[in-house]
Amino acid sequence: MDAREPHPALAVEGNRVNVLAYPPPTTGQFVVFVAALLTAGLFVGTWLHNEILGASWTRSVLLCEASAQDAGAGLPPGEAFLARTLAAQQCAGPVERIRVLWSAGGTAMVALGAVALMYVRPAVIRRRRRLSRPTPAMRPVLERFAGLSAEAGLRRCPALFIGPTRMRDAFSFGVPGAYAVALPRKAVAMLQRPGVFDAVVRHELAHVRHGDVALAWLARSIWYVLGPVLLLPVVWAFIQGDLSLLPSYLWRVALLAVVVEVTSAGLLRSREHDADLAAARGQSQLAELWTCLGLLPARRTAWLRRVTARHPDADRRREVLESPHRAARIGFLDGLAAAFLAALGVPLVVGAAVTLTAGTGLTLAGQAAGALLAGPLLGITVGFGLWRAALMEEAAALPSTQPRFSRLAVAGGVAVGLALGQTASLAQTGVEPTGLTTPLWILVPVVLGAASVGLSASMATTWARAVRIFPRPWPAWSLAMMVNAVLFAAGAWMWGTLQAALDGMGWEGTRLWVLSGFSELPLVGAALFLVSASAAGLILAARARGRPDPGWLLDGIPDPAEPSPRGTGTEVPGLLSQFLGGAAAGAFTVAVLAVWRQLIGPLDTFAAREQLTWTVIWVCAAAWGAASLAGIILRPVEGAGAALAGGATATVVGVLGFAVINTLRGGPLTLELVGFLLRPALGLGFALGLTAGLLATLPWPAHAMAGIRSRLLLASTAAGMAAVAAVGVIASAPVLVGPPPLADGRTPGDPGGTAIAEAEAAEIEHYAQALAPGYLFAYLFADEQLRVAGNLLDRDPPAALGHLRSVVVPAVAALRSDVEHYAPRTQEVQSVHNELLDAIGLTGRKLELFATAIEQGDESALLEGAALQEEERRLLLRWQAGVIRLGSGQAGP
């Protein structure tokens, strides 16, 4: 049969699904696209400020520095520097606010220019394309157009224009409230073949109804404004004769231009398929559009032309009409574009947020801003796209020989996109390529980003079988968006903070940070939410077994009243099996802890208590990771998502079991003890389970494994439990050296063999669990902003000095104020707290030396500051070790 022959029956393999039951993820991709381009305006605004007002800003800052020299008279060097800086900051407040306004003005300029251009373009299009209103002789065309508009559900009929004779294709344009459709001159002749005319008009009206017109033209207008603006620094560099930054800048702009072109073309192609499917609801409309596509010439284009084409070729459009589930597939380029654009703006947004909140006490929110930007954007694009693709392929009941979308391709795209986005951000111009002291840590978002894809795709398989419960589509897709927004936001928070900790403190400091960082309530809450979503999916999938697909999921073929066949994949595991498996893993974990508790003997020193604390947390967290590994080996497709419930159960059982063992040996059994161990164990366990999701992206031969499930069960369980034991032994090895003894000969925190009073125990618990994590996070933030100032030093010393004065010093001053304000009542806490006070004192002196080095070009001051930084880090690690010992003092008798 000729490919262009009308074919109303369409011999489709499997079911014909209603892809439009779920919103297309391209809407979210347009949002990411627009957000990334707008954030680039922050760079433009900052550059304009530096070029126009940079000299004036520098003079004002230096004058304020001079006027503040007497502010710290009579104080120790570190405190005097902080006092002088705070006085200078108050003096320079007006010029700093102007700098912030210029940065925000860059984004506003791009946005307003794009909106203005979008509203001007319709008139330009009408003039350039020589469009005209229909003549009175075309009244039948107008009447039929109005009827089809009402049929499409549009409250306001778009304006109709007729193009010249040479115009070949219909298109839509306009702005919200004033949309228009342009038809070629042959529209009058097309009306003689109502099926063809109706198909063309329905397709264009579908674009209007789905909001494609406004999104597409807005995105294009932003780039038309931003592109020339981004060339201004290049032109100015040639005028000034300073080309030092051009290599670092030009490749970033060029890469952004390529991604913009490829992404916008891909989004427009995807929307064409959505419009086709909206115009082909039911057999008659499908046949009409099939006939219309048969009139288009068959073109074979090269791969590069296909990637940059804004319209898919006729053959590809017919393939999607035959098998609508193809329109829902997501691949490498989809993941790469979304991740690249989401990561591209994070450094710029964080930098702007930090500058805006400098001195307000809210600067730590800048760190969360990055995760809250990139995470949900990835969730509503990549994550939601995975769930939509899994559902449509499951509902299509494809034969086993039919190819499916590749998780590995999507994960690879996200991994590459995150690495490129962080590296290519305009905020990194003239600094380290990745913005990191150790470029190796760029692998942190690469690994966790790809693993997030694996976990999302695994959960998607379970929920694809659970949606038969829903009588309407909106609860299903709303839940999909919510779950993926939380999943990717949690992942973004983890890879952002973990990368900062590794780059700022190294492995040893990060290992200590894990206890506080992974016990943060937002992360633990997100983990428990995802566990609940996984459990709900397993329950609903079991209830939906044997039910027919809902009518909203199929496009009338076959009859949705009849049970429809589903895919050939195995049924998802039950929730009870996950709980039982998790309980078994937890019981094994308790056994490991019981043996280890017996081996280490009495806990009469803080070193022993610290060793036991590490053992409990890491072994219980490893139980979650082991459960995830076992789940993936046994059920490669849905195992990672289903194992969330089992992994959390294993961790909880492990912690509670240890609490019982500890109580039987005479230790305290309190909610504070359980919470102290459970929160970091759950957070770390979720991180390990998420990382295991990387294996779920691999193309496992599920059909070949069905016959060896029993052997795999034994092998995977043994491997998982061996992992628990191995991690327990490794994690419990003593790696920290205790602080020196106190004046009375006791080890800090050692009550001299007597029971700690309740008041002292309460203060120790409050300091270890509430105060210390906040202090550490504040220090990490200040340290990261110091690296930002260091990166600015080579290309813009005044900006580096300004960032040091306006962001770093206020952050350290706020931290010092909080630390000094707290007065410990117990000697144990006082000893540990003094380590932090000493470290922050060195921080102030270090910043003073760095400022002197920048202002006077004094290399000796820079070297002295670097030496102080090493001592500062040593004291900080000792303080962290002391915090761990304070907390672990509750872990045993």
Automatic annotation (TrEMBL):
<feature type="transmembrane region" description="Helical">
    <location>
        <begin position="681"/>
        <end position="700"/>
    </location>
</feature>
<feature type="transmembrane region" description="Helical">
    <location>
        <begin position="100"/>
        <end position="120"/>
    </location>
</feature>
<feature type="transmembrane region" description="Helical">
    <location>
        <begin position="364"/>
        <end position="387"/>
    </location>
</feature>
<keyword id="KW-1133">Transmembrane helix</keyword>
<feature type="transmembrane region" description="Helical">
    <location>
        <begin position="440"/>
        <end position="464"/>
    </location>
</feature>
<feature type="transmembrane region" description="Helical">
    <location>
        <begin position="476"/>
        <end position="495"/>
    </location>
</feature>
<dbReference type="GO" id="GO:0004222">
    <property type="term" value="F:metalloendopeptidase activity"/>
</dbReference>
<feature type="transmembrane region" description="Helical">
    <location>
        <begin position="30"/>
        <end position="48"/>
    </location>
</feature>
<feature type="transmembrane region" description="Helical">
    <location>
        <begin position="408"/>
        <end position="428"/>
    </location>
</feature>
<keyword id="KW-0479">Metal-binding</keyword>
<keyword id="KW-0378">Hydrolase</keyword>
<dbReference type="InterPro" id="IPR001915">
    <property type="entry name" value="Peptidase_M48"/>
</dbReference>
<feature type="transmembrane region" description="Helical">
    <location>
        <begin position="575"/>
        <end position="596"/>
    </location>
</feature>
<feature type="transmembrane region" description="Helical">
    <location>
        <begin position="249"/>
        <end position="268"/>
    </location>
</feature>
<feature type="transmembrane region" description="Helical">
    <location>
        <begin position="336"/>
        <end position="358"/>
    </location>
</feature>
<protein>
    <submittedName>
        <fullName>M48 family metalloprotease</fullName>
    </submittedName>
</protein>
<keyword id="KW-0812">Transmembrane</keyword>
<feature type="domain" description="Peptidase M48">
    <location>
        <begin position="161"/>
        <end position="322"/>
    </location>
</feature>
<feature type="transmembrane region" description="Helical">
    <location>
        <begin position="217"/>
        <end position="237"/>
    </location>
</feature>
<dbReference type="GO" id="GO:0006508">
    <property type="term" value="P:proteolysis"/>
</dbReference>
<feature type="transmembrane region" description="Helical">
    <location>
        <begin position="616"/>
        <end position="634"/>
    </location>
</feature>
<feature type="transmembrane region" description="Helical">
    <location>
        <begin position="521"/>
        <end position="542"/>
    </location>
</feature>
<feature type="transmembrane region" description="Helical">
    <location>
        <begin position="712"/>
        <end position="737"/>
    </location>
</feature>
<keyword id="KW-0645">Protease</keyword>
<keyword id="KW-0862">Zinc</keyword>
<feature type="transmembrane region" description="Helical">
    <location>
        <begin position="641"/>
        <end position="661"/>
    </location>
</feature>
<dbReference type="Pfam" id="PF01435">
    <property type="entry name" value="Peptidase_M48"/>
</dbReference>
<dbReference type="GO" id="GO:0046872">
    <property type="term" value="F:metal ion binding"/>
</dbReference>
<keyword id="KW-0472">Membrane</keyword>
<keyword id="KW-0482">Metalloprotease</keyword>
